[in-house]
Amino acid sequence: MSHNSFGHLFRVITFGESHGPAIGCVVDGCPPGIMLTEADIQADLERRRPGQSKFVTQRQEADAVKILSGVFQDERMPAQLTTGTPIGLLIENTDQRSKDYSDIRDAYRPGHADYTYDAKYGVRDYRGGGRQSARETAMRVAAGAIARKVLDQIYGKVVIRAALVQMGTQKIDRARWDWDETARNPFFCPDAKSVDSWTEYLEGIRKAGSSVGAIVEVTAEGVPAGLGAPVYAKLDNDLASALMSINAVKGVEIGDGFATAAMTGADNADEMRAGNDGKPLFLSNHAGGILGGISTGQPIVARFVVKPTSSILTARRTIDKAGAEVEIITKGRHDPCVGIRAVPVGEAMMALVLADHALRHRAQVG
Ligand SMILES: Cc1cc2nc3c(=O)[nH]c(=O)nc-3n(C[C@H](O)[C@H](O)[C@H](O)COP(=O)(O)O)c2cc1C
In angstroms, what is the span from residue 33 Cα to ligand 1's centroid? Predict the structure, then answer.
């Protein structure tokens, strides 16, 4: 039974728990000849790393990645290259505080996966949530950094970016969207004018020992037409599955998604004209760059909603392993809005799905 791997030709298996000695992954199927160093991967990990602002968990992890295999360089080669063999990546866990979790050893946090893991396996590593913990998503980001390089090698430049478009009740003004702004504030918010009010809002939530949800928008530009396949390998189907697999994600939409329910067919259809480069020119992108499960060549656009952190300082009623009714307050270090650190994870899942589909497309169609 293998339920910890993902992808077909670009395949990733992750392992590790929040408070074990390390987390890691194996990337199997990466083509040879791609320049790859630890620094390439580290840059993406830095954006997801905990402890960087008061609005994310204060756990201090360097998240320093080691490449264990799958790359080679000798004195005749100008750069370290992938060899086509499995790439092993490892990140040591260095800031565990298992004692923070003694309270949840036997009691189930409402909204978390303590009960379901116990019901299914009967053995549960409760330290930091064990395998339920989003610590695992660091390996997705690491593998995603390699996936980006695969895409760039095949297609030139594929730009994959994500932003937080809603935090709790606070929405951005899309007219003020500036991608550069996402690197300047602790929320990956693309609207500079929202940052002050978001800061005040989340500070209030944090001080109250509560948490809020969020919506992340992720886009990929530079993807040609043709990725994806009928009928169980639709690009939107794989993308939705990949984004939904991120911890705490409760909904995914592609393009205009749920808003299309209120649109007419005339409004929703992306009209086409002949472009100067011989390719079609779409006059809109309600479809989010995917039709019939196959990419159109337009930007691919997806959004996902991340629920509020369930580990909170507000007392909640629950039961323990023995079935006794108890109250629980979750101590430990938790993000007041896990949607923030889900932003680079969403980018990574988009990159992983696209790299896998790019290799599958090449294998079938050439
Ligand atoms: C980046 C990220 C960080 C997270 N950090 C926490 C956390 O500090 N505390 C917590 O209770 N849940 C956290 N979560 C959410 C839990 O991992 C998740 O809710 C839990 O595994 C149950 O799974 P489900 O919500 O998908 O059903 C985080 C999620 C993400 C994406």
Answer: 36
